[in-house]
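Posting for a labmate who doesn't have an account.
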Amino acid sequence: MDTKIAFGLALKKVRKAKGLTQEDFGDVSSRTYLSTLERGMKSITLEKLNDLAQVLGVHPLSLLLLTYTNCDSEVSINGLINKIEIEIEGLR
């Protein structure tokens, strides 16, 4: 799955799980921009990822983990976390 589409699905899933509407992001984003993200029509910047995650009350990496598990249905969240942990430890 394309990462823009996978991110859009993750964003929409978390937004709905938190009981938020697109209008609830008015302080950090327009409803139109949020809609284009959720439909996979635009890519997000790190700054906007942080802003949206704050409104959602989640860590930005949570959105990214959901995104990349959407990209590959055979990858579990725990498996991805373990892989990242190993990679980061190898960089220290």
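Reply:
Got it, the structure tokens are right above this. The chain has five helices and no strands.
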